Amino acid sequence: xxxxSQKDFASGLMFIVVGIAFAWGATEYSFGNxxxxxxxxxPFGLGILLAILGALVTFSALTIETEDGEPIGHIGWKxxxxxxxxxxxxxxxxxxxxxxxxxxxxxIVASLAGDEFNWRDAIIAVVVLTALSWFVFSWALNLVIxxxxxxxxx
Length: 154
Fold this sequence. Notes:
- By secondary structure, the protein is mostly helical.
- The chain folds into two domains: about 5-65; about 75-140, no CATH class.
- Helix content is about 65%, strand content about 0%.
- It has helices spanning about 5-25, 40-65, 75-95, 100-110, 120-140.
- The longest helix is centred in the middle third of the chain and has 23 residues, at about 40-65.
């Protein structure tokens, strides 16, 4: 069988692998039931859906003809490392600095990965995403996430 879209084939395989990994990792947690889902319920379902989506994308890459085969092309390593690094930085700083400092730091560092960095747009994203994150996670869901550095809340 001939691959008719290299991009779709590679992304479909990536979705399948990530979906199976999430579903497999979720089996370590209790599932509960539909009325009272446990901590493994959502990641397992999400992993299965992601793997199914990957299978559909992979199938379309093998069946739907494209004009030039859609080669994968150049991988942007610098933006990839900046984005992954910003997420690692967020994970490392959240317990120490709190959500209201760590999230803006994540957004600004991740914004540097783009070719067209603009301080105004980054600040707007910081304000909107931080406010929405506070509203959803701290206020609406009542999750215990540190908002400020531990030394400020004492």
